[in-house]
Amino acid sequence: MDTEIPQQAVLSNVCLAARGYLLRSFDMTETRILLAIDDSPASIRAVTYAAHLVGRRRGFRFCVVHVLPPFPAHLLEHGGSETSASDLKAERQLWLAAAKKASQRGLDEAGAKLRKAGVPTGAIQLLFCEPAEGRDAADDILQMAHECKCDTVIVSRDSVSWFHELFSQELSEEILRRGKGFSVWAIE
């Protein structure tokens, strides 16, 4: 006897037994998704895709991470310059504050797009990925995914253009190559 499972039962993670139509509920673990963005149109496409795919489904949490560009060259090292270490640190903090302020709108829009698709406000965390000396953006993103206990990393293939300019590589390719232990989605 062919029994069709109602769509509502599938979406709410409830299964109908083949005989007796007994409802069983399964413990649904939470899936954490790190969504790496910048201000590019490709990032907007990735947010739209993730929002459409997950939408009103429960059991998902988003860590939306805006990837900030690396520090300018004059803020990288103190070696031999007349600027003291404390002045250099203060300049870096000012630069970070300005970079975050310039990027906040894109981060807020990504959160709004996810909420509009039905992702609860409490399931969205908005963060910045700050540049770190000795590491590149791929390392930073994967470190954040680990710290946020994410299962999945989503990045658009054409975002973070400065990464390509600096390293002659695509960020998404680097995350795909290094993202051991994560599901990685590279969105066109």
What tags apply to this protein structure?
5-stranded parallel sheet, disordered N terminus, alpha/beta, 188 residues, Rossmann fold
Overview of the structural elements:
The longest helix has 32 residues. The protein has one domain: Rossmann fold. The chain starts with 6 loop residues before the first helix and ends with a strand. Helix 2 crosses helix 3 and helix 4 crosses helix 6. Helix content is 41%, strand content 20%. The protein has a five-stranded parallel β-sheet with strand order 5-4-3-6-7, with helices on both faces. A two-stranded antiparallel ribbon has the order 1-2. By secondary structure, the chain is an alpha/beta fold.
Percentage of residues in strands? 15-25%
> Which outline best applies?
globular
Unreliable sequence segments:
1-27, 162-168
Q: According to CATH, what is the class? A: Alpha Beta
Total number of helices: 6
